[in-house]
Amino acid sequence: MAALWLVAFSAQVADYATARFDHLRLARGVRTRLRLHPVAWTVPLAGIAIVALTISADWSTRLFFADPAQAPAAILIALGTVVVAVIIVAIIAVVVVRPPADSYRLVRDELLESAGLRIHQDQVDEFRARVTAIDNATKAHRAADAATVSAALQLSVRTPHRLIAPVLAVVLVVVSGIAAGQDSASPWVVLGAVLAVVVSVVVGIVAAQASLALAMSVRSTQDVYRGELMSLIVEAERSSKKRVAGLGDRVNRALSILREQQEGTK
After folding, report:
1. Is the dihedral of CA 16, 46, 142, 134 positive or negative?
2. Average model confidence (pLDDT) for the chain?
3. CA 28/CA 75 separation, integer angstroms
4. Residue 17 to residue 164: CA distance in whole angstroms
5. Domain assignment present for 229
6. Distance between CA 180 and CA 44 in Å, rounded?
7. Tens of pLDDT along 144-198?
């Protein structure tokens, strides 16, 4: 139980550390996209895979050498653990290398790349549709207006994985209390479990506040990108409605040539 709490606590630490790192990079303009915080859970998950592999290797080895008749079971345990570890690594790889979702920045960059080119109205309409889709997706994940303790608690309730460490710490208190009542554990163990509860709650709130601060910074950055994007779309729409110089003369000339050809074939 203590090992599970340590893994869950490491997830809280990774949540806070990656949120602060991405926030500082975003505030300094060094980075415009989040890279670490969305995949912070991969750190404890990889730790779980390593711990599981180690325990399984030790267990299967002991089982194999203790009783050669249990060799098939030992092999199955080892193979099963390897399969689970491979699945975990595959999930992490898929999430890490997943292409970024559509964003104001990506649409803005596409418009900047097409600067100087004539954009048709249907292309402008497509850009506007993408902006509307991004607006709807952003409203569905609207961040809080302040990184207060109450907002952090609400975020923790909405994201149950943040409650794993405190819940495990409470279970640890109950288990250690029962063991202490049966004189099989020292009262210091109970005190350590209570301290784990306090640390889990405090670190969880601080990590949630860091995530909220990062979300607010991302929102302000997105607002800037959206303003630039809408200006580019308006400019592109204005240029799409301009008449091309000499286009009418070329069309009339082509029509006259076509009429002459038709009269010549009669």
Report:
1. positive
2. 75
3. 52
4. 18
5. yes
6. 30
7. 667 788 888 888 888 777 888 888 888 888 888 887 777 666 777 778 888 988 9
Q: Give the integer Cα–Cα distance in Å for 259 and 266.
A: 11
- Find where tokens 């303009």 sit: 29
Angle ∠(147,152,158) on CA atoms, nearest 5: 130
Q: Which amino acid is at 4?
A: L
| Residue 216 included in any domain | yes
Is residue 261 in a domain?
Answer: no
Total domains in the chain come to 1
pLDDT at 247: 47
Q: Is 147 within the bounds of a domain? A: yes
Q: Under 8 Å CB-to-CB from 151, ≥6 apart: which residues?
A: 144, 208, 209, 212
State both tokens at 229.
């994007």
Question: What is the span of the domain harbouring residue 182?
Answer: 106-240
* Angle (nearest 5°) at CA 86 between 85 and 90: 120
